[in-house]
Amino acid sequence: MGNLWQVNEESFSPNLKQIRSQETVFTIGNGYFCTRGTFEEGYPHETAATLLFGVFDSVPVSKEELANAPDWVGLQLFVNGERFRLDKGKLLAYTRSLNLQNGLLTRTVHWESPLGVRVRINSERFASLADEHLGMIRYSVTIDDSPKDLPVAISLRANFNAARGNYDVMHWETTDQGHSADLLWLQSETRSTHVTLVQSMSFNADTTAFQKEFVDGDIEPSIRLTGALNPQESVVAEKVVVMYTSRDNEDPRKAALIHHQQMLNTVAEETHSNAHNVFVFDYQIQKQDEAWARFWEQTDVVIEGDEKAQVGLRYNIYQLRINTADNDSRYSIAAKGMTGFGYRGHIFHDTEIFMLPFFTYELPHIARNLLLYRYHLLPAARKKAASNGYAGAQFPWESTLNGEETTPPSIVHPETGEVIPVLNGFIELHITSSIAHATWEYWRVSADDEFMRDYGAELLLSTALFWDSRAEKNGEKDEYIITDVIGPDEWHEHVNDNAHTNFMAKHNIRIALDVLKWLQQTAPSKAKALIEQLDLTDERLAHMRDVMEHLRFPQDPVTGLIEQFDGFFKLAKFDQEKYRGRKDSYQGILGVQEVQKYQLIKQADVLMLLTMMRDEFDYDTKKVNWDYYFPITDHDYGSSLTPALHAILGCELGHTEEAYRMFMKGTLVDLENLRGNTPEGVHAACAGAVWQAAIFGFAGLRITGDGYTAQPHWPDNWQRLSFQFKHKGEPVNIDLKRS
């Protein structure tokens, strides 16, 4: 049996796309920052990035993006004056592993320099979960042998690299730097948003034979250790970095330097060592182990009988944790988290529909913060609704810190290269009901009445008011319609009465009215204040109920088949057999306009509705719609969001092996770069969908009015499925074993 907590790389590939994909895979992080898995020594054309939670800077067209901070991991090694790098000399052996159990990234290299010195290098790196401001590297160099057994000159240079950008865009400018007897520091500021970042560094060797030198510089300040090693001798160095921003503290330089020096002093006192040359790695890795152990005690999902699924699921849970802050409601989880530049750090409905359920069931305090992020941005959502001529709150399709719409008006299509308009920010509306649904689900599972009273009710009623005003009365019939939208299937634009959009709008209004009734019973003064604030007159409430009851839902009353949108069934069928073995999406093959003529689906639309609202539809309805829509969905190159989500419905319908296949497409999407775009960052929403597939699909967990039930569905080889979740604040342990 292999190590079920490790992601391993057994050899080094010089293929640049593979290198960049692995940089994403081996990202370390703690929710405050994430750092891609680039090599300490650097590599040509690498995509080094450290992204900080909620630290943005302006960018043309897309308004703003997470700003790539000065690189803190740089550590160059020179052997007899020759630089060690994986594209130089001769690589004799190489391994790299990410320990998911404690977030430790380890790499071991056996290398021969061009002049014949053989060296073993071992690096260990982590972002502290116990201290979110801390990043650490332990780096050891051992001389195996040298020509004529002569001593080898060694130079280790630890630096901050301020010449890092988001591809070609530079966001930070050095404003100051300096050093004391122990610490080197760099102060930077984002060019447009004026966020200050201070990074402090200490760098020590385990021998006094190595000399230390501070080298100041605005672009690459560094600390250098120089000395000599005989064959079979080693040197171990530790690089300790502390980061603070002006979002954390009014004086981030003072905060960073005090924090850093106190840490060194504390460890020096406990280990009876010199504070000017103290080693802290062992002390801090113990704290790291303890912090991650607490996390995994709450969130681990044990699969027995399938090692690949076990490691993959743990990897996806790891990604969910490192990409969101533990206690910060000013920002949320981006589509790529903080692991790459894809989608620029913008927030989509991916968070609420795909990722938030994990936190709702496992870490409800983080789920609460993610919803508070939306609540804080209600003023901007109201402004967007009003600017479009509607009431209530309309959330933007993409958002960052101020809640304004940040969807770019156009992009270059990644497959066809054509410049295409992006209509999502204008007419993809279902994000508003997605946020409302996530709010309702959080309350249903957590029973956090205080949250619903103080925040959730206002959010639900504000979004319900938007749908009430957005729906139009159909003069020909006693019904309301919603026209000119994009549903979850983004390959079809300007559609009318998208089933998912309409049903979730009805649901949004229904739960808002239910919460208002609850609020009137439990907190009448709060209810009265909200009614006045939102102008919820009797006439308005009556109209909301009328819209809820009569909003069109295109479903055949006999067969139960739901039409994805008005006219979908009239679109041409598409012969997918002609494109067997393709490497592009159908939109990439056919083009943006042509694909809209066919019954081809980018991602689950009707089936996502049936999954999200699984208690609202019967078995026969789910079956007939699965049979119709599943075969015409592009599971391979459409959206990464929904293959794993399909597993939930597939399990319920008895398609367990198909569900497993979809589950593994999601589980391995980044570990094996299945879609070719992992270099842009992890598929964070897919990580959430993978967890949902395991818990709601294969374990069959359901929360009911009386409590909860579990009805397992077993893929081949799975023998046990065990996990914990929180229900109304109390931990619940589920341990399912195959009979």
From TrEMBL:
Keywords: Glycosyltransferase, Transferase. It comes from the Bacteria. SUPFAM superfamilies: Galactose mutarotase-like (SSF74650), Six-hairpin glycosidases (SSF48208). Pfam families: Glyco_hydro_65m, Glyco_hydro_65N. GO terms for biological process: carbohydrate metabolic process. Residues 314-692 form the Glycoside hydrolase family 65 central catalytic domain. GO terms for molecular function: carbohydrate binding; glycosyltransferase activity; hydrolase activity, hydrolyzing O-glycosyl compounds. Gene3D superfamilies: 1.50.10.10, Glycoside hydrolase, family 65, N-terminal domain (2.70.98.40), Maltose phosphorylase, domain 3 (2.60.420.10). Residues 12-247 form the Glycoside hydrolase family 65 N-terminal domain. The active site is at E490. Belongs to the glycosyl hydrolase 65 family. This is Kojibiose phosphorylase. It comes from Dictyobacter aurantiacus.
